[in-house]
Design brief:
6 helices; Dna Ligase, domain 1; 140 residues; alpha+beta
Amino acid sequence: MITEMELIKSKLQKKEITPTYIRLRVLDYLEANKVHPTAETIYKALVKEIPTISRTSVYNTLNGFLEKGLISSIFITGTETRFDSNTSPHHHFFCEKCGQIIDLDIECSYFKKGYVKGHKIKELHGYFKGICKNCIKKRR
């Protein structure tokens, strides 16, 4: 039986990333918490378990993951970077009330074609802003 940590280790190795303990824990956190956390959120969660971890280690780990295409970054708010372990093309919804970022499975025909008006598409970054259904329910 393959453990979750073995799967995480395998993902790192496939991207030619040495699976250190901190890298394993950062990726495990991202996989387990699909809330599109900031680096600071990840640091605050992991420092409880790993008191010797530093913010620099978390930032460097995330940057290494980005360089290898293991994760993606999201810049919706303009004030912070969020991280996503789902690297498949998808859109996001940002709730202006609670700050939550939600994955949306919306198909983009241009991305499937690979071109738009003769321009080659290499990445997809689509997002919507509004108020999430949970915040709407709370207002009623």
